[in-house]
Amino acid sequence: MTVLPSALDTAGADYAANRDAMLAKLADLDAEHTKALAGGGEKYVARHRKRGKLLARERIELLLDPDTPFLELSPLAAWGSDYTVGASLVTGIGVIEGVECLITANDPTVRGGASNPWTLKKALRANEIAFANRLPVVSLVESGGADLPSQKEIFIPGGALFRDLTRLSAAGIPTIAVVFGNSTAGGAYIPGMSDHTIMVKERAKVFLGGPPLVKMATGEESDDESLGGAEMHARTSGLADHFAVDEPDALRQARRVVARLNHRKAHADPGPAEPPRYDEDELLGIVPGDLRTPFDPREVIARVVDGSDFDEFKPLYGSSLATGWASLHGYPVGILANAQGVLFSEESQKAAQFIQLANQRDIPLVFLHNTTGYMVGKEYEQGGIIKHGAQMINAVSNSRVPHLSVLMGASYGAGHYGMCGRAYDPRFLFAWPSAKSAVMGPQQLAGVLSIVARASAAAKGQPYDDDADAALRAMVEQQIESESLPFFLSGRLYDDGVIDPRDTRTVLGLCLSAIHTAPVEGARGFGVFRM
């Protein structure tokens, strides 16, 4: 039997303390998500409704098949910046007429849906996901264009949005634009470059230059409707493929367009999968509040994979990294999960071999992070930790099967790279509220700076100010701690969202389904592995 046993003591004090700490973090997460849901605030939401318009998430709800999930991506984008949490854009994956699609929707209650630098990053990330997984893109458009005070950060890189639309189309990935309001200046190219365009009567406004700009440039007098209205584009310019009488009609027509796409998944959906044998609610009590305390990731695996069934690979070798095979919602996966935090030479070599095997078998990989990085010290340097760590990173870098990463606890140093952090292009990366990620832990980093400063003073024959050192260490620890937290990282789009641990199986299942819209094929060759 390969069903994982559980040693989790749900009646114990440690479990209770871990659970309480996680619930407190989840309460904070809910508060931040509420900010994103609030959009521009009550005043602007009320004004939008008074105009007879639906909110961004209401449009998405009408677009999706009834009673199907919507995996929202990057909801905390722009957190900690001067811009509204959510970055005036909603993105995610949902099912339309049985077809999984990547959906983007401008939030016009936030500065008229204008794009700021974080909006751009979020939109580009959505296009990246659509391209990698061959998901049709449906853009629900209502935006005033660039947020002009930040144009210097948007204009030049923003051209990639239009390039992406053409590349998606060239790759045979359908693109659909539904225009509910303004789509002007550069934004006019979204309907202009989409395969299918739907515009709403008397609401859609699509033009390169509005009446004031036309007046200034040419002296011509014009109005919004004759210059860029939906009826004009449907009858005269031909830009609109479909003319909708109102918003619900536009969304109905968008659903019909998707129904006629003839877009098929590369892999058939798997059959029913046996749920885990342990309660997902118990995931709340596994990760300690203090990440320096180790925990067994098999307790997480047992509550995520089908039937809690896990065939472990090399269980007696490199024991601080658990590797093995499982199924998740019927999809085969290989799992790499940090057990005791530190990656030694054995763990690195084991991981490299396991990643190669997954590529030979065309099996996606799931990385469950809780690592302080690769082991340091004279014994380990002499034992070849650099070579062996490089083997693992080489394998991750050149692996072609889809990767899914979940940051459960620590994800520090080069261990973050070896476990497929953001820079290594996982198809999706999510974090638990307990996660932290930085070059190293706050205490270690502050300690290193202190040692270097003390050595520098000694080399110059100068006295060392211990009080100033203590103050510096406290300041550095506080800074690194705040910059390693999941809200900070998610705000910068270093992940695709911070999730409730109890939702891990569902989120990974939705991602695996999306991934299998595209072919899954592993690498058959890797770079040079130093021996």
Structure description:
The chain is α/β, with parallel strands linked by helices and 531 residues long. It has 3 domains: 236 residues, 2-enoyl-CoA Hydratase, Chain A, domain 1, CATH 3.90.226; 191 residues, Alpha-Beta Complex (2-enoyl-CoA Hydratase, Chain A, domain 1); 42 residues, no CATH class. It contains 19 helices and 16 strands. The chain has a 7-stranded mixed β-sheet, with helices on both faces. Strands 8, 9, 10, 12, 14, 15 and 16 form a 7-stranded mixed β-sheet that branches. A hairpin with a 7-residue loop joins strand 8 and strand 9. Helix 4 packs parallel to helix 5 and helix 16 packs antiparallel against helix 17. The mean pLDDT is 93.
Topology, element by element:
Layout: H1 13-38, H2 42-50, H3 56-63, E1 70-73, E2 89-96, E3 99-106, H4 117-133, E4 137-143, H5 151-170, E5 175-183, H6 189-193, E6 196-200, H7 211-218, H8 224-228, H9 230-237, E7 242-244, H10 247-259, H11 298-301, E8 311-313, E9 321-328, E10 331-338, E11 342-343, H12 345-361, E12 365-371, E13 373-374, H13 378-382, H14 385-398, E14 403-412, H15 413-418, E15 428-431, E16 436-438, H16 442-459, H17 466-483, H18 486-491, H19 504-515
Helix pairs in contact: 4-5, 12-14, 16-17
